[in-house]
Predict the 3D structure of the following.
Amino acid sequence: MSAMRQPAFFLSHGGGPCFWFDFPPPFGPGAWDGLREFLAGLVNSLPARPKAFLVVSAHWEEAIPTVGTAARPPMLFDYYGFPEHTYRLSYPAPGAPDVAARARQLLADAGIDTAENPARGFDHGVFVPFLIADPSATIPVATLSLRHDLDPAFHLALGRALAPLRDAGVVIVGSGQSFHDLRTFGNGRAEPSASFDRWLVDTVTDADTAARDRALVDWERAPNARACHPREEHLVPLMVAAGAGGQDRGQHAFGGQVAGKSISCFRFG
């Protein structure tokens, strides 16, 4: 890695505004502390202060990949049923229209149609992890949607096309969740999340990056895949991060348990 080349990440971003109140049982106080600690150290783990983050959030889907181009993105509180104070959180990081424009050009060069949204704000897949990672909110953030078909091969190709941004000081982040069957949190069963997480770690950290990408395309063949992701919008950001990782072997950057379920984050580069 050169002095300026930045990594790509897949972040599990937690449950709603989970870092700002104690979840009720079966979670309990401190349930998300391990993930919080990991996110709090993310910026210091980088080879240099980044020019910007480019974040692909599980909470934004469009017909074609769409970049957020607002210079001052507003807050987008896209969760419900949480304490009133969690709707007063503020993440006033600047947008990165220049990064968004460069991302569109790279995708166009790869034959991928895109659009832009000048009004899109920071959804909780963006502001929740980055309020912990960059609490001063000084690092610019560009955002990019998923394509609504959630095709894993397409999103790997999307990440590959964006990879040159890493050499321009931009950290590419897929923000989702490695386990996302919310109905089964706290049911007392470590499975199916444990076996799927083992598969995910083995797959992402495979030294054969071509084999890694083939396995990610066929993720539904993994143990308990659909039990962990009834719908895959929280997993597909991993495909973008892996694509942007290119030949960089994935690292298991964080692993922990939340209400008995295995949660992981990954780094490429």
